[in-house]
Amino acid sequence: MALRDLRKVLSRVDEIKITVVGRSSGRKITLPVWFASDDRALYLLPVKGSASPWYRNLLKNRKIALGARGARWTVRKVTVIKSRSRVRKIADMFRERYGASDVKKYYSKFDVAVGLPLG
Questions:
Q1: What is the 3-state secondary structure (H, E, C) of 24-82?
Q2: Is the pLDDT of residue 40 over 90?
């Protein structure tokens, strides 16, 4: 799928499905996640931070597939973001997009984020 097609889909959805490979099982694991984006990247914020299972799986195998409305996109190498200031900015993007109360309700740890290039 072309990048411009992905951008169109992302503008019409509130959540996407990600697929990662299990670090022990080797199985594909798919789950819905929220996201935020800017001109450069799509950002994922693990609900339990660095303790989130899908994040821990991604550390072992940096390949991730995204899906929404029948569209799919695969990224072979993601950027792990550990900088406090960058994670804070990404969390703020999530608060703006989904509302501060919902982010507070669902997210318990803000120590890491994941970036996927959009250009």
A1: CCCCEEEEEEECEECCCEEEECCCCHHHCHHHHHHHHCCCEEEEECCEEEEECCCEEEC
A2: no
Q: Predicted confidence band at 5 (pLDDT cuts at 50, 70, 90)? A: confident
Question: Residue 58 sits in a domain of what CATH number?
Answer: 2.30.110.10
Q: Which domain holds residue 88?
A: 3-117
Interval 61-99: pLDDT, tens = 999 999 998 888 899 889 999 999 999 999 999 999 999
The total of structural domains in the chain comes to 1
Sign of CA dihedral 2, 36, 72, 13: negative
63 and 74 Cβ atoms separated by less than 8 Å: yes
